[in-house]
Amino acid sequence: MRVELEIWRQDGPRARGRFESYTVDDAEPEMSLLELLDRLNDQIIEGGGEPVVFESDCREGVCGMCGFLVNGKPHGPQDNTPACRQHLRAFPGVTRFRLEPWRSAAFPVIRDLVVDRTALDELIRAGGTVDVAAGTAPDADSVPQPYQQAEQALDFAACIGCGACVAACPNGAAMLFAGAKLAHLSLMPQGRHERSRRARRMTQAVGELFGPCSLYGECVPACPAGIPLTAIAALNREALRAGLRGHSRDN
């Protein structure tokens, strides 16, 4: 099948970007969007050109590296699916794709489809403290936790940090990402001494590094991990809890 591609090319962070058009005449329905880019880059290299720069790692939908906009949607036409798992067979009749990097002030373009997601790392560092009991490893059952609570924590921990929620939000907010982290950790027995301090630091960082929540919920269908909108409510709840407890107490 013949696929037409319009791809954002940018030589560096300070360079002026532009869209360039390409055609892949031997695309297969089984190809993922990344495999389509692989085939395109083979053609470009054979012709002596510079290949399109994009990120990927596991290509199994768990690393969060492969994100970019496809026809204006983070990762592609399918909801809750990373770019590496979006196959051409899933959207028959679509033979033209416009690929561009995440469009957010928090994610400056490095080159072509690759953006700098350091802001997400800074947000994690803001709340990345946890208390641990030094010594030998504890027994698996020494820290009890209700099953339902553990399952809920794992659901929030599924976030892969791809940044699609930020790219989907008109305001470039990271509330879903930050909320998933705070909700996950608030449900765990470990790290409770830092709970209030973590909430204060992360809510301050998310306000400094990203835009405010748009209240439209575009982040939810864009999230490959299916993080629910309740994560944002959890962030607000944790921030309120920390504010009511004050700075005199950490837990």
From TrEMBL:
Give the required cofactors: [2Fe-2S] cluster; [3Fe-4S] cluster
Q: State any single GO MF term.
A: 2 iron, 2 sulfur cluster binding
For biological process, the GO terms are: aerobic respiration; respiratory electron transport chain
Q: Which domain of life is it from?
A: Bacteria
**Keyword field contains Lipid biosynthesis:** no
Alphabetical UniProt keywords: Iron, Iron-sulfur, Metal-binding
Task: Specify whether Metal-binding is a keyword of the entry.
Answer: yes
Q: Which residues form the 4Fe-4S ferredoxin-type domain?
A: 150-179
Cited Pfam families: Fer2_3 (PF13085), Fer4_7 (PF12838)
Gene3D superfamilies named in the record:
3.10.20.30, Alpha-helical ferredoxin
The record ties this protein, via PANTHER family, to: SUCCINATE DEHYDROGENASE, SUCCINATE DEHYDROGENASE IRON-SULFUR PROTEIN
Q: Which protein family is it in?
A: Belongs to the succinate dehydrogenase/fumarate reductase iron-sulfur protein family.
Protein's UniProt name: Alpha-helical ferredoxin
UniProt source species: Actinomyces glycerinitolerans
